[in-house]
Specification:
By secondary structure, this protein is α+β, with helices and mostly antiparallel strands. It folds into two domains: 35 residues, no CATH class; 129 residues, 3-layer Sandwich (Rieske Iron-sulfur Protein). Helix content is 23%, strand content 23%. Strands 5-6-7-8 form a four-stranded antiparallel sheet, with no helix packed on it. Strands 1-10-9 form a three-stranded antiparallel sheet, with no helix packed on it. Strands 2-3-4 form a three-stranded antiparallel sheet, with no helix packed on it. The radius of gyration is 19 Å and the shape is globular. The structure holds FE2/S2 (inorganic) cluster. The site of FE2/S2 (inorganic) cluster has 13 residues, from loops.
């Protein structure tokens, strides 16, 4: 499935809340040994079936993405940014001193070897979960307008309250023009 529409800034999913709710249910249900037999079918029903796991991957056609352009696709309910970087942007990202980074990480550790022009990151701000805006901010990467976090063209946090770099999801190239995320 390919999605190229831009996603607006909004709080991320309530995954954490749902998980907490689940833990409360689990803790209550396992309070008595006798209750375990009752709760097990419920827990087992939460294990995803094989067909659901298959949907956990998103295949994206990147053939139309131009150098300097970033697109947004959805993967497991989250936005993922795919950016095609120019030679100049790659050089800049690779030459950034680690001592300048709040969350030091080499650019080469965030991209696939031989595919340095492609950056793939989860589009969820690591501060409080807003969706940053592409090609904006002081480092021309992403800017999160919620509280002013600036990410560079490697998706690394450079300025603002976000503590970590944008996460790199698992992905691979299935052809020269197709990426499989997940
Ligand atoms: S959520 Fe992005 S800066 Fe606060």
């Amino acid at each position: 499935m390919t999605t190229t529409s831009k996603i607006g800034s909004s709080p991320a999913s309530k995954e954490g809340e749902t998980r907490r709710d689940f833990m409360v249910v689990l803790a209550s249900a396992t309070a008595g040994v006798g209750a375990v037999a009752t709760v097990w079918p419920f827990i087992d029903s939460l294990n995803p079936a094989a067909d659901v796991l298959a949907l956990a991957s998103t295949e994206v056609d990147i053939s139309a993405v131009q150098p300097g352009q970033a697109i947004t696709v959805m993967w497991r309910g989250k936005p993922v940014f795919i950016r095609r970087r120019t030679e100049q942007e790659i050089t800049e990202a690779e030459n950034t001193k680690l001592s300048d980074l709040p969350d030091p990480e080499k650019d080469t550790d965030r991209v696939k070897k031989g595919e340095e022009q492609w950056l793939v990151v989860v589009g969820v701000c690591t501060h409080l979960g807003c969706v940053p805006i592409s090609n904006q901010g002081e480092y021309n990467g992403w800017f999160c307008p919620c509280h002013g976090s600036h990410y560079d063209i490697s998706g690394r946090i450079r300025k603002g309250p976000a503590p970590k770099n944008l996460a790199v999801p698992p992905y691979k190239f299935t052809s020269e023009t197709t990426i499989l995320i997940g």
